[in-house]
Amino acid sequence: MRLSTVILPVRRWHEGGRDEWTAAESLGFHAAYTYDHLSWRSFRDKTWFGAVPTLTAAAAATERVRLGTLVTSPNFRHPVTLAKELISLDDVSGGRVTLGIGAGGTGFDATALGQDPWSPRERADRFGEFVPLLDRLLTEDAVTHEGTYYSADEARGIPGCVQRPRLPFAVAATGPRGLAIAARHGQAWVTTGDPKIASTGTSEESLKAIRGQIDRLGKACAAAGRDVAEMDKIMLAGFTPDGDAPMRSLDAFVDFAGRHAELGITEIAIHAPIPDSVFAGDRTVFERIATEAPAQLG
């Protein structure tokens, strides 16, 4: 079981922002991720910086911890420009970047560029075109593609990623089409649990739902000719019926993580505390979890 953290881009770099990323490395986290949004929920009218510049600065400020997004989506991204940014970020970091990627939703990002929100079907259609094209752009020197939603005309990807054949994708998906994309293109799979029961379900119902997701991922991998055991399975914590309970003590977290490890989850990402927010956890408990939980989880 790997333990990672999520650092939301809500602090100016020279007013505590940099310190969050260097602390993540000092605490021994496997990876430090951030959200890739233009704004997010209760932070919409508060400070919020861009993911790629933040990760680039974090790459320059750290040496060992992996870095990435949880998650990027097509809501305001295009594969050609995103690929160029990722190649650059992977270079600056010395090959420490993981791209968490998902189909997106109906939040603020969905309309920030002036468009109407896409339907679930269109989000799935776009995602199904976005990921394979991004895969090519990160692995081929020149790409030409004419699609329904995304096109590229002799787009150059030189010199490519430091990581070969490209930086890893961690695909967030629970539906059949998304799981098929994860099976074909993902080195890891991401879940937040079942959003349908996040506020009304129980811990046991959540575990059952995640077990079902992993079973369906296994079937998707088998259909793609892959062994599901090859894929890392990442859980972004904080969105299950457990709420913030696992972050209230070291013992509570170890119990929570252990039950998910039994399902097959190989990495859990926890949010770094942000005072006066939905992630207003106890910093001391957070640091104890970071330094003591991995040894207990094995």
Could you walk me through the main structural features you see in this protein, from its secondary elements to its overall organization?
The protein is α/β, with parallel strands linked by helices. It is built from eight helices and ten strands. It has helices spanning 17-26, 51-61, 79-93, 120-139, 176-185, 203-223, 250-261, 283-297; strands spanning 2-6, 31-34, 66-72, 97-101, 142-146, 151-156, 169-172, 188-191, 232-236, 267-271. An eight-stranded parallel beta barrel has the order 1-2-3-4-7-8-9-10, surrounded by six helices. A two-stranded antiparallel sheet has the order 5-6. Helix 2 (51-61) packs parallel to helix 3 (79-93), helix 4 packs parallel to helix 5 (176-185) and helix 5 packs across helix 6 (203-223). The longest helix has 21 residues, at 203-223.
